[in-house]
C-alpha cells in the first residue's frame, strides 16, 4: 500500500513538472470576497484586516456567499531576506502572514494576497520578478487561497511595463500560474494584464492562465467610471465561464471611507440607487463580487444591496454565462443573462437622467408563451405575462432586475 502511495505521489510530481497548468475546478462561479485597496489603500494592518474579516461574518456577508479576504498592495516591504523571501512589513503585520491567514480561516473564510510580476509593485514595494517560485511556495505555506497578480513596474518601471510585448507579458503570468500549480495548493489567480492596452486580442490566452482578469483601469466611486468599467466587459462575454471570469474591477458600493481619507471625487460619488445599479450590473455580467468598502462601517441600506441573495444568485448561477447587452437604445439598455433551468435574468437599465418606461419582448429573449416575472430588488412576483413585459417609470440610473421563467 505504502509503495502504491509513493508511486502515486511520484506520478503526480512528474505530471506537475512536465505539464504545469492552471488548477482545475477553481472559481467555478465568480469569486466573492473583499479587497483592501478601494477603502484602505496601503494603510492596512493586521488589526484592521482581522476586524474586517469579523465584520464579514457579523454583517451576514459570509452567509450571502462572500469568502475571500484579500489584502492588496502594501503588506510587504521593499526588501527580501538573504534567502530570497519577501520581507513582510512587521509594523503593519507583527505576527506575519500565516497568523493572519489562520485567523481568517478560523472564521470559515479564505485568505488572499497581492503581488506584481515586475521588480516592484505599483506602490514601489517588492514584486515577484526572479523569485516567483519562492513567493508561490511562501503563499502556499502561509495558507493563501487567492493571488491578485497585478501589472506594474515590469521589469523595473511603469514606462517599461507599458512597452512590454504581449508575448512577454503572457509569459510572466504563465510563469506564476505554473509556480502556483507546483505548490499543489488551490490558489485562485486574478491577473491584470495591461501591457498592450486593454483589447480583445488577449482573450485567447487569459482563460488558460487565470481565474479572473481585469478588463479596465481602476474603478472610482463615480457613475461614469463605473459604467466605463462595465463597458469593458461587454464584448468579452464569450470567454467567461466556470473557472474564468472577466473582472471590471472591485465594487465601490458603500465606499465612503476612502473618500474621507484620500480625497475622492465627492461631488460625483454614487448615490444609493446608483450603487444598487452598479451591483446589479456586476451580477449580470458574472463579474467577481469583491467588495471594496470598509465592512466595519456599513449602513443597513448598503448591507441590503451587498447581501441581496436573489441578485447574487444571478451572479453565482452554475451555468456560468456572462450576461449580454441585447438592446441598446441610447441611454436605455436591455441586458440578458442565461441561467440554469431554462430561466433568464433581465436588467432594464436606465442610464438617462429622466424616468423611463422600458419594454422587453419574449422574442428578443428567445422565449415564448406566458412567463412568470419576478422583481429581484422588490422580492416580488409581478405575475404572468404573455409576449412581453413593460417596466414603468424606471428611475434615472436605476436598473430593474427581473427573473423570467
Ligand atoms: C493598481 C490596481 C489597483 C491596486 C493598486 C495597488 O494597479 O489596478 O487595483 O491593486 O495597483 O497599488
Structure description:
The protein is α/β, with parallel strands linked by helices and 405 residues long. The protein has helices at 2-18, 37-40, 46-58, 61-64, 96-106, 132-142, 158-163, 166-183, 206-209, 223-234, 257-262, 272-284, 300-306, 309-315, 362-365, and strands spanning 32-35, 68-70, 76-80, 86-88, 110-115, 146-149, 188-191, 212-214, 245-247, 289-291, 324-329, 332-339, 343-350, 356-361, 370-375, 380-386, 388-394, 399-404. The strands form four sheets. The chain has an eight-stranded parallel β-sheet with strand order 9-8-7-6-5-2-1-10. α10 (223-234) runs parallel beside α12 (272-284) and α12 runs parallel beside α13 (300-306). It is globular. The termini are far apart. 44% of the residues are buried. The chain binds beta-D-galactopyranose (GAL). Beta-D-galactopyranose is lined by residues 37, 72-73, 121-123, 150, 152, 192, 218.
Small ligands present: beta-D-galactopyranose
* Low-confidence region ranges: 11-19
How far is it from the N-terminal to the C-terminal residue, by CA? Answer: 53 Å
Tell me roughly what share of residues is in helical segments. Answer: 25-40%
How confident is the prediction overall: mean pLDDT?
A: 92
Sheet/helix structural class: alpha/beta
How many helical stretches? Answer: 15
Radius of gyration over all CA atoms, rounded: 22 Å
Query: Beta fraction of the residues?
Result: 15-25%
The major β-sheet equals:
8 strands, parallel
Morphology: globular
Provide the spatial order of strands within the biggest beta sheet.
9-8-7-6-5-2-1-10
Number of strands: 18
Amino acid at each position: 500500500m505504502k509503495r502504491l502511495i509513493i508511486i502515486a505521489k511520484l506520478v503526480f510530481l512528474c505530471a506537475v513538472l512536465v505539464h504545469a497548468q492552471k488548477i482545475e475546478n477553481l472559481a467555478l462561479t465568480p469569486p466573492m470576497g473583499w479587497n483592501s485597496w478601494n477603502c484602505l489603500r496601503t494603510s492596512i494592518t493586521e488589526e484592521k484586516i482581522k476586524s474586517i474579516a469579523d465584520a464579514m461574518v457579523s454583517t451576514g456577508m459570509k452567509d450571502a456567499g462572500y469568502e475571500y479576504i484579500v489584502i492588496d498592495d502594501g503588506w510587504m516591504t521593499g526588501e527580501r531576506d538573504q534567502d530570497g523571501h519577501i520581507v513582510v512589513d512587521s509594523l503593519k503585520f507583527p505576527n506575519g502572514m500565516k497568523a493572519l491567514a489562520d485567523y481568517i480561516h478560523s472564521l470559515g473564510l479564505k485568505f488572499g494576497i497581492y503581488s506584481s510580476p515586475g521588480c516592484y509593485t505599483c506602490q514601489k514595494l517588492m514584486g515577484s520578478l526572479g523569485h516567483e517560485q519562492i513567493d508561490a511556495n511562501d503563499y502556499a505555506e502561509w495558507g493563501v487561497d487567492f493571488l491578485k497578480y497585478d501589472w506594474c513596474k515590469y521589469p523595473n518601471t511603469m514606462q517599461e511595463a507599458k512597452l512590454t510585448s504581449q508575448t512577454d507579458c503572457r509569459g510572466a503570468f504563465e510563469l506564476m500560474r505554473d509556480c502556483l500549480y507546483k505548490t499543489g495548493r488551490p490558489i485562485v489567480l486574478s491577473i491584470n494584464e495591461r501591457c498592450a492596452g486593454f483589447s480583445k486580442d488577449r482573450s485567447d490566452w487569459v482563460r488558460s492562465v487565470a481565474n479572473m482578469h481585469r478588463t479596465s483601469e481602476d474603478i472610482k466611486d463615480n457613475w461614469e467610471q463605473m459604467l466605463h468599467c462595465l463597458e469593458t466587459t461587454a464584448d468579452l462575454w464569450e470567454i467567461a465561464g466556470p473557472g474564468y471570469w472577466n473582472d471590471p474591477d472591485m465594487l465601490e458600493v458603500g465606499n465612503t471611507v476612502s473618500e474621507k481619507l484620500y480625497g475622492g471625487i465627492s461631488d460625483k460619488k454614487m448615490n444609493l440607487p446608483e450603487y444598487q445599479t452598479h451591483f446589479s450590473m456586476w451580477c449580470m455580467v458574472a463579474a467577481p463580487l469583491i467588495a471594496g468598502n470598509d465592512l466595519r462601517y456599513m449602513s443597513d441600506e448598503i448591507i441590503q444591496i451587498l447581501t441581496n441573495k436573489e441578485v447574487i444568485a444571478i451572479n453565482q448561477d452554475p451555468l456560468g454565462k456572462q450576461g449580454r447587452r441585447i438592446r441598446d437604445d441610447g441611454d436605455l439598455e436591455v441586458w440578458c443573462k442565461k441561467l440554469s433551468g431554462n430561466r433568464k435574468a433581465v436588467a432594464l437599465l436606465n442610464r438617462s437622467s429622466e424616468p423611463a418606461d422600458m419594454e422587453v419582448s419574449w422574442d428578443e429573449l428567445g422565449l415564448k408563451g406566458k412567463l412568470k416575472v419576478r422583481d429581484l430588488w422588490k422580492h416580488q412576483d409581478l405575475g404572468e405575462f404573455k409576449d412581453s413585459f413593460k417596466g414603468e417609470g424606471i428611475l434615472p440610473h436605476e436598473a430593474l432586475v427581473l427573473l423570467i421563467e
